[in-house]
Design brief:
Layout: H1 8-11, H2 22-47, H3 55-84
């Protein structure tokens, strides 16, 4: 039986370019509040997948949706302000 470990370098060669760049990490950090709001909404929706949502569940989902929209609005406003300001200062 052939070992796949011998072919590992051929399949996924190691390169220094596999790490995210500083710009990519900054973009992830900028979008992190939206990612977390998305996770909260998914958590609220997953809870009610196998049962009828109670009034508390519906409130939790509405609150998560509003939070996600608020975070998205904030991020868009920050991005628009950064583009419109000279030098990219926000």
């Amino acid at each position: 039986m052939k070992s796949i470990a011998a072919l590992h370098d051929v399949v996924t060669p190691w390169s220094d370019g596999l790490e995210p760049s500083d710009a990519e990490l900054d973009a992830i950090e900028f979008e992190l509040p939206l990612i977390l709001a998305d996770v909260d909404l998914l958590d609220a929706e997953i809870v009610v997948l196998d049962r009828m949502p109670s009034e508390l569940d519906e409130r939790r989902i509405r609150r998560a949706r509003r939070r996600k929209l608020a975070v998205r609005r904030t991020l868009l406003n920050q991005a628009a302000a950064a583009v419109s300001m000279p030098g990219g200062a926000a």
